[in-house]
From TrEMBL:
Protein name: (Mediterranean fruit fly) hypothetical protein
Positions of the PCI domain: 1-37
Any coiled-coil regions, as ranges: none
Polar residues bias: start-end ranges: 72-81
Subunit structure: Component of the eukaryotic translation initiation factor 3 (eIF-3) complex. The eIF-3 complex interacts with pix. Interacts with mxt.
A GO-annotated cellular component: eukaryotic translation initiation factor 3 complex
Source organism per UniProt: Ceratitis capitata
Domain of life: Eukaryota
Keyword Protein biosynthesis: yes
Region annotation Disordered: where it falls in the sequence: 61-81
PROSITE patterns according to UniProt: PCI
Basic and acidic residues bias (residue ranges): 61-71
Signal peptide, first to last residue: none
Amino acid sequence: MKPNEAECWIVNLIRNARLNAKIDSKLGHVVMGTQPLSPYQQLVEKIDSLSMRSEHLAGLIERKSKQKNPESIDSWNTIKQ
């Protein structure tokens, strides 16, 4: 692809995808920007991440305890029911 064709293709990509980007013709670079997240969105993402990590750690703890004492876990499950 010739440089002019490539530049047109990139410009169309930026326009069609509505990307926050611009082309630096002198350096031949595409500079991409990101939109900052709102504090609310940052909090929601952090909570989701912590929730998934907590579930994963709980699963690991349960598996480890089953490996060490399979009888005590079975008796605990019958007590809970």
